[in-house]
Model the fold of this input.
Amino acid sequence: MRDRLALLAVLPMLLPGAARADDAGAAELQKCKICHALDAAGGNRVGPNLHGVFGRKAGTLPGFNFSEAMKNSGIVWDDETVAKYLRNPKDSMPGNRMSFPGLKDEAVLHDLLGQLKQATE
Done:
């Protein structure tokens, strides 16, 4: 009986698709790093450097050529605005140039926000 209970406890971790949200959030953060630097010394890449992004007005980082949509959005990046943008960048800000298709899984998005915050402080 005890062996069966142990198997039931471990089985969900072995099934495909049962990855924890924090693992998936970490994987999403790696995708961000393809186009964005996260540290202060990283500079701009295809996308702007995200260091210090939380609390910054969208489209204002010096040295990056932002879209007019981004510059004129009036957004200040916080948990809510970043989450809305990352769910669907094209719909949340028509005319922006980010090619990321969006993130639908709320658990992964929540974890990504925490990791992004920590990585860009």
